[in-house]
Amino acid sequence: MKPGNKGLYRVYKAGIYSMQGIKAAWKHEAAFRQEVILMLLLTPAAFIVGAGLTQQLLLLVLAWLVVIVEILNSAVEAVVDRFGGEMHDLSGRAKDMGSAAVFITLVLNAVVWGAVIGQNWLGWW
After folding, report:
1. Which residues of this UniProt protein bind a divalent metal cation (predicted)?
2. Options 46, 55, 56, 70, the catalytic residue
């Protein structure tokens, strides 16, 4: 068994580490800051655009998923950068895949937000 914190203290410490991660992302990652600001704007918009709780939650979850994926992408980039600045195919591939994950999440958001707006406001479908 792995030694370390147990019980509620472990949960408390995990919360501290999580906040450190959010602070680091905010301080060092411009894309993270931009996406958080965008999601803060989209959060109230979800309650205006969505018709009913299910649509509203879908819009909120997808919007904030961008922030989650960006944090993971930033973590991958930090680890790759930690191991040196020399060019390596695997390092480039890892960074490109992280970027692709963010891009796909943004496209998914655009499609779902567009569909909900189309259905609720424009009378499509």
Report:
1. 29, 77
2. 70
